[in-house]
Design goal:
The chain is mainly alpha-helical. It has helices at 9-24, 32-41, 47-54, 58-71, 85-100, 108-117, 121-129, 134-145; strands at 29-30, 82-83. It is built from eight helices and two strands. Helix 2 packs antiparallel against helix 4, helix 3 crosses helix 8 and helix 6 runs antiparallel to helix 8 (134-145).
Length: 154
């Protein structure tokens, strides 16, 4: 990842929050599951209204994520948290989605699309088992976001 300068403030905060969550849980790898967990915690981002529009139970998604995160082995004695290849894939796809939507910055909805379109493992499975797939997300996003483009980091 070439820095966070092309990410919106909200997505930068989500990435930092995901890193903090991984550290708190003493996980060695930063995973899409950490990022999705943070999305569900951020009241201001567009992910929650889009999931609500789809009719997804965000509390249930969060519970399932908590279960998955609890199963990940903990590293004793701290250490550096490394970005997983699945999360790198999410970022790569998010960049492509931002371009497709003609957005200048990568936002939380692009990152969520990266989870849905990538090999994002259990995060993707949890979303899909709760009725959130690419098509449903894009339709709900169009309704919530309208024709608005992301042209600045705010």
């Amino acid at each position: 990842m070439n820095g966070l300068d092309k990410f919106t403030v909200m997505s930068q905060e989500a990435i930092q929050g995901a890193h903090a969550k991984a550290e708190e849980l003493r996980h060695q790898s930063l995973l899409p599951e950490h990022l999705l967990w943070v999305f569900l915690s951020q009241e201001e981002n567009i992910v929650n209204p889009v999931l609500a529009k789809i009719g997804s139970d965000t509390a249930r998604i969060r519970e399932e994520l908590d279960t998955v995160l609890a199963r990940i082995p903990r590293v004793e004695g701290g250490g550096e948290v490394f970005m997983s290849s699945d999360l790198r894939d999410v970022f790569r796809i998010a960049r492509q989605e931002a371009k497709k939507l003609k957005d200048d910055y990568i936002s939380t909805e692009h990152l969520l699309l990266g989870i849905l379109k990538g090999a994002a493992g259990e995060a993707r499975q949890i979303l899909e088992s709760n009725g959130v797939d690419q098509d449903a997300f894009l339709k709900a996003l169009a309704t919530v976001r309208g024709s608005h483009r992301i042209t600045d980091p705010e």
